[in-house]
Write a structure and sequence with these properties.
The strands form two sheets. An eleven-stranded mixed sheet has the order 1-9-18-17-16-15-14-13-10-11-12, sandwiched between helices. The protein has 497 residues and is an alpha/beta fold. Strand 10, helix 10 and strand 11 form a beta-alpha-beta unit. It is built from 21 helices and 18 strands. Helix content is 42%, strand content 15%. Helix 12 runs parallel beside helix 13.
């Protein structure tokens, strides 16, 4: 279940299923039963179902009926006017013969709450009585099982619409929504279970979703797995451009990341002032004197040097811009991070134009601050858009793969394919971790992995490496965890490394 749906895509999945002669009531019955089964597993007796006036509330009435039939003490707290219930939701409410309480800002005498107030389609801020009920659920101090998505979360963007339920568990249907993975919505969901309610997988062929979970099953087919005929020259040669004497650490982190990611050779292109420092701190990584954009352009004329990373500790300003343009004029694949991005904050069109003139891979890896500077208009003018859509717009603008970093890192390609990561632990918020990520991506691209898949894989193994190390992580630890990550990954993909 790699596909992630927007709320409009999920509505289309419902419509296509109903048009194919599965009744909406059957889907609602299956959804409510799935919620009831998940709630029953908690082995708690007294259940309050908070139901709203839409189909999400209908799911709640069905869940209440099934819970009561299995011996639970259930009451429904209905938020809204009963006469406003229509269609399947009205029918589900009519089938419920138990108590229905008027909405109250206090929820007591219960062991668990089923949140069926709003579903994933909420697109306006919550206020009035519904907002008070969300506050009451959160103040109850009992487990909350959310139906489809915690009430108050936008199912497409993951945004909190004024207020949101903090669920212990969420039961969603058919496929997860993008709002289940994007922050801050992800933090409100608890564990997410996907229930089969009778929507056939074939509807995806018509919907054609373009957003996916970032997981090995998505990009694993193109992950490099050298065989016994491989040698260091066949595994690619990545170059990392170093900054001056006081900022060499970032380039060395990127270089180590690339080497551990599998690149056959890695070279630090070092200013002469930092040559001794870089050479003294490097073993398997080579170091060569390269000063300025002209020398970098000459250095990259050797096509065996097929990938280059610029930005980590490289310094900001015109000199960096010139180096980036020299790299983009070469035949090497290019990964731009940190200073290489910020240096174009006032020259976005120059960067985009240079990228669009080439056919080789380009990957940009901004964090939020860098994204807001390099893609200022997208960041400011599209505030209501999801992080996924912002990243897509950025990728389309510059014609490159964009990695918008964070706990919910989004990778997007100019063709609109996008992934959302869910395996990055908080420990990655440490100095230098982004430099390692840039190196990992560069190392994968050097081995021939396509840019989009390489960026997705790099983000995933980067997150998994951090989890492998655990608490106390610093950036230097990340490359050293990659052998363990690769061992499991390649075994799972059915190969040897």
């Amino acid at each position: 279940m790699l596909e992630l749906l927007t709320t409009s895509e999920m509505a289309e999945a419902d419509r296509l299923t109903i048009d194919d002669r599965t009744s909406g009531m059957a889907l609602m019955e299956n959804a409510g039963r799935a919620v009831a089964e998940a709630t029953a597993l908690m082995q708690l007796t007294r259940i309050v179902v908070v139901a709203g006036p839409g189909n999400n509330g209908g799911d709640g009435f069905v869940a209440a009926r099934h819970l009561a039939e299995s011996g639970h003490r259930v009451r429904v707290c209905f938020v809204g006017e009963r006469q406003r219930l229509k269609g399947d939701a009205a029918q589900a409410a009519d089938r419920w013969s138990g108590p229905v309480d008027a909405a109250s800002p206090e929820l007591t005498d219960c062991d668990a709450i089923v949140d069926a107030l709003f579903g994933a389609g909420l697109d306006r801020d919550v206020d009035g009585l519904p907002r008070a009920m969300i506050g009451a659920m959160n103040a109850s101090s009992v487990p909350i099982i959310a139906v489809d998505l915690p009430s108050g979360i936008n199912g497409t963007t993951g945004a909190i619409m004024g207020a949101a339920v903090n669920a212990s568990r969420t039961v969603t249907f058919f496929r997860r929504k993008t709002g289940h993975l994007l922050l801050p919505g992800r933090l409100q969901c608890g564990a997410v279970e996907v229930a089969d309610i009778g929507i056939p997988d074939g509807v995806l062929d018509k919907i054609k979703p373009q957003t996916f979970v970032n997981a090995p099953a998505f990009w694993g087919a193109s992950f490099p797995r050298p065989d016994s005929r491989a040698h260091k020259y066949s595994r690619g040669h990545m170059v990392v451009v170093s900054g001056g004497a006081s900022t060499t650490g970032a380039a060395r982190l990127a270089a180590r990341g690339a080497l551990r990611a599998g690149a056959g050779l890695v070279t630090i292109a070092s200013p002469r002032e930092a040559l001794a420092i870089n050479a003294a701190e490097s073993l398997a990584v080579m170091v060569r004197p390269v000063d300025g954009s002209a020398e970098l352009g000459e250095f990259l004329k050797d096509r065996r040097r097929n990938a280059v990373v610029l930005g980590p500790g490289g310094g900001m300003g015109s000199a960096m811009r010139e180096q980036v343009l020299a790299a983009l004029a070469s035949q090497a694949s290019v990964v731009l991070d940190a200073d290489a991005l910020t240096s174009f904050a006032e020259h976005q069109d120059l960067l985009a134009g240079a990228i669009r003139k080439r056919s080789r891979n380009v990957v940009l890896t901004p964090h939020q601050g860098e994204f807001s500077r390099i893609f200022r208009d997208i960041y400011v003018d599209h505030k209501s858009n999801s992080k996924v859509e912002k990243t897509r717009l950025a990728a389309d603008f510059c014609g490159a793969v964009v990695v918008y970093k964070g706990a919910d890192t989004v990778v997007a390609a100019p063709d609109r394919r996008a992934t959302i990561a869910e395996n990055g632990p908080p420990s990655l918020a440490t100095a230098g971790s982004g430099d390692v990520l840039a190196g990992i991506i560069g190392g994968l691209v050097a081995q021939g992995m396509p840019a989009f898949e390489a960026a997705c894989a790099g983000v995933w193994v980067h997150g998994d490496a951090a989890s492998e190390f655990g608490p106390g992580l610093i950036a230097e630890d990340l490359p050293e965890m990659l052998p363990r990550v690769y061992r499991r990954l390649v075994a799972g993909l059915g190969g040897r490394h």
